[in-house]
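REVIEWER CHECKLIST
Item 1: Sequence provided? yes
Item 2: Single chain? yes
Item 3: Sequence as submitted:
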Amino acid sequence: MKIFSEILNQLFDTAEECEKAEAEHEKALAEAEAKKKEAASIRAERAKEVEEAWKRAAEASKEYSKLLKDFLKDYNSFHISYHSTDPLFSLFDLF
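Item 4: Structure as written out by the authors:
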């Protein structure tokens, strides 16, 4: 007599084989779900880091704008040179 597993849609020779295969399948599903949750958790943490860095950059930009405005009010001009090797060059490109 063959045993049919509705979970795996397979036939097995014995009930023990069927139970073992279903247990392995459930274990594999649980491991996959755990990996998926861990990956989602890591992604959420990294996304939070990116958001915090963006907030710090926005605050720095606001401070820069305020300082520049005050400087221009006092001295009427300000000269700055940007170089492609400047680490802030790409940050100010966004603004």
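Item 5: Key structural point noted by reviewer: Residues 3-94 form one domain.
Item 6: Recommendation: ____
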